[in-house]
Amino acid sequence: MTMVRHFLDIHRLEAADLRAILDDAHARKAARKGWPKGRPDADAPAKDRVLAMIFEKNSTRTRFSFDAAIRQLGGASIIANAGDMQLGRGEPVEDTARVLSRMVDAVMIRANDHEDVERFARVATVPVINGLTDRSHPCQILADIMTIEAHRGPIAGKTIAWVGDGNNVCHSFMHAAPKLGFHLNVACPADYHPDLHDLARGGNHVTLTSDPREAVVGADVVVTDTWVSMGDGDYEARLEAFEGYGVDDALMNLAASDAVFLHCLPAHRGEEVTDAVIDGPQSLVWDEAENRIHAQKAVLAWCFAETSGG
Fold first, then answer.
1. Catalytic residue ranges
2. Lowest-pLDDT range of 88-92, 113-117, 292-296
3. Is 185 helix (H, G, I), strand (E, B) or coil?
4. Average pLDDT, integer, range 42-65
5. How far, in whole angstroms, is CA 272 from its chain's centroid?
């Protein structure tokens, strides 16, 4: 019997599978050096396969990177906003999953509610990939780790400082820490701490503090994200709560001398990060964005690989 491989959360993956996906991402990027962006990879593991993409949230990097990814794997894509589908008129998630499983070979969903993606995956008979939910953003973290490793070597043993909101991206970093053997310092205001279940998944690989300086001292990587995410309605309250959490030159100077800066974008320049940092020599945000393509190619290839089981 062939088992369906979903990619919903990093904490669900075996460490060996996570490492294999990252290694494949590095290899696929290296193999394409100098190629036109539209040329399929030599092995074209998604030849004749179709990826459906469903968007409940606005997207730039997820939309373009997944579309480029499936094309480079030799496949094709169908893109739809949830509001344009019957999902937007109340069709049950499960019914949509059953229908799309008959029409495409995999589904990527960028959703508001994590539970909707889990419900979709429970009945889908094709791979389902979490392209972002309110709880996690696993594809982003793969690109982040790939970027760190490309510039600073293996992630194991490194210290990453997360400064800002304990949000979905932070959750996925916490999921990855024990799997890959790095340490994560999380600095956020008390009212915006990460989900405690996700914090527990990080175990002793995660340290939580309210002091950005404490988190950043000696860190190999400094990461932040917007303080106000899509759907948050408390803009002014958040700006007040996060005062002092902006990543500037003074904060970066507390990190290791060769520390790098990451941000999943879009950035609110002048809020969570200064122009001097995001445009500076330590910033890897543009490589990070590009690596979404290669990380997601590796995820898709892993999902398409047939696994025998009971």
1. 110, 137, 140, 225, 264, 292
2. 88-92
3. strand
4. 96
5. 19
